[in-house]
Amino acid sequence: MDVVVAVIFLVALAVIALEWVHRTKVALAGAGLVVILGILELEEAIEAVDWATIGLLAGMMIIVGVTEKTGIFTYLALRAAQLSHGKPLRLVLLLGGVTGVMSAFLDNLTAILLVVPITLLLADVLRITPIPLVLVEIFASNIGGTATLIGDPPNIMIGTAVEELSFLDFVVNLAPVAFFTLAVVSVLLYFLFRDSLRVAPDRVAELQRLDPTRDVREAKNVKRSIAVLLGTIIAFFLHAPLHIEPAVVALGGATVLLLVAVDDVEEALERVEWATLFFFLGLFVMVGGLESQGIIEEVANLLGDLTDGNRTAEAMAVMWGGAAGSALVDNIPFTAAMIPVVDQLQGADPVDDALWWSLALGACFGGNATMIAAAANVAATGVLDRTGHKVSFVRFLLYGVPVTLLSLVIATVYIVVFQL
Amino acid sequence: MKSILEDMALVDAAVGKDATYEDAARVLAASEAPTVAVLDDDRKVVGLFGIEQALRGCMPSYLLEMRHTAFAEDDLAVLADRAREVLDDPILEHAVDPVTVDLRTSAFHVAEVFLHEGMAGIAVVDEARYAGILGRAAFARAMLRRALADAGS
Question: How far apart are CA B41 and CA B112, in angstroms?
């Protein structure tokens, strides 16, 4: 059965990477096979699901869906663009910065879906092509999302799987390197794109005419929604001393929001991305199947043998391997499979958390390498495609690979100097 | 028993399948019908071009991706650019799949189609051939008039 479950998982990864079938269908079909073939009993399959991750995702989807209606995120993106006064370097830094921060505290897919349409309008107003700005935002969303436990799906999975790692641990250990990397990458992107970001003075005047406060003024329950969002973020910072799981914080915040700021519950729940939640369910069952057959242990042992137990070599293998795996497949299934491997490598009495931070940095930064490496890339290039600004796979690679390599070099120095 | 559709004045608003966006837009602008039928050579309905499709065509394509737009100021140059881009497009690129009802169908069915399809106008066919366009508002008014008359008697 170990060969069968390995084949199921590898075929599922390949089909997800090639995008032949929607990834949720693939994950559910793989999970179904794991149960039907008796690799896991139904009860074992249910136990294999990390319900904390599902709860955290669902809670954040509700919070973000409701607060997004207030127009506050549109306001932030527009103000950032206006503060640039049409200067290319400022435009890149401010739009990248806003996207990065929004990714850290919402999640990178949501952030990108909020800022990309506004960027298309901004590009129209400024009479420039939107592609460079959207690429900046994609890279910023994946790097910014690395900064917190809730910013990127790989971090959510790591944070909920490893109880000892708190939200604050993620911020302390990942936010500095993430935002330093974002700044360096933004400057690189500015030099690559500066010629196509020059704006005529009359277009800058048009940009300043936009009134970003109007949407916020017209929305309902703005103050309550924003208060609950901020309260939830504060609760994330305090969840460890308060002994509350991050999933409880997210679901608690969502419940409070539904109680105080939502009239139509069904409409609010429509914003829950059920396809994503079922994708995670299927993945967890498939990985549970791999674990039950001892395959995860074998991979961990193999990795241990290859690195000869050297901590630095293990961390580098996890980070660079994680980045390569994320780039080629998709960082979510890859992280789901790598979490138990890293858990095995850590052993019963780990000396530090360097391997977890290496996995987070590798999986999140690796999400920038190719168009399919992260959900945010797929979503943003999809919007570009639908609006007549197609970015080819190869063109994405031309920018994605240098950005990823630069990010990983920074992450390598960080891990070696500060974590090992 | 006669269908309510047979008693209603359907509006003729149609273009051939080789028409352009501009051709259909001109028919739509000049007609009282909220939808233009796109017909093949056998006068079978192969698409519908309604108010929504017209708006989608002449507005920037990213509008559909946006959830907040109150901040925006009209930039007529952008809108004119967009309109120029689509005028020569084949109409079938902008039309949606046809929603049709038979001339002899019941009012109950027509109401269900309007409520579920969300179109402002649908095509009425007689033995699978185009007979005319039925607008949502015209149908609703006819139903109301009949209901009020029945209630009064």
Answer: 30
Q: Which residues contact A295 (CB under 8 A, 6 or more apart)?
A: A2, A5, A6
Number of domains comprising chain A: 1
CB pairs under 8 A between A and B: 54
Asked if A121 and B66 come within 8 Å (Cβ–Cβ), the reply is: yes
User: Are A158 and A339 in contact, with CB atoms under 8 Å apart?
Assistant: yes
Q: Is the pLDDT of residue A326 over 90?
A: no
- CATH fold, domain B4-152, is CBS-domain (3.10.580)
At residue B41, the 3 state secondary structure works out as coil
Max Cα separation, chain B? 57
* Spatial separation of the C-alpha atoms in residues A242 and A167, rounded to whole Å: 12
What span, in angstroms and rounded, lies between the C-alpha atoms of A82 and A315?
A: 42
Q: Strands (DSSP E) along B55-153, which ranges?
A: 100-102, 121-126, 129-135
Most confident of A225-229, A407-411, B119-123: A407-411
Q: How confident is the model at residue B1 (pLDDT cuts 50, 70, 90)?
A: low
ipTM over 0.85: no
Give CA separation, A332 vs A61, A322, A377, in Å.
17, 11, 13
- The whole domain housing A149 covers 2-419
A212 touches B: beta carbon within 8 Å: yes
Lowest mean pLDDT among A68-82, A140-154, A208-222, B72-86: B72-86
B127 conformational bin, left if phi > 0, alpha if psi -120 to 50, beta if neither: left
Residue bearing tokens 């907040």: B68
CB atoms A117 and B62 under 8 Å: yes
> Which of B66, B68, B76 is the mutation pick for testing A, counting most A CBs within 10 A?
B68
List the domain boundaries for chain B: 4-152
Residue B136 has pLDDT above 70, yes or no: yes
Tokens of A31: 């999970």
Q: What is the pLDDT of residue B2?
A: 67
**DSSP code of B95?**
P
Q: What's the confidence (pLDDT) of residue B153? A: 63
Specify the higher pLDDT residue, A371 or A93. A93
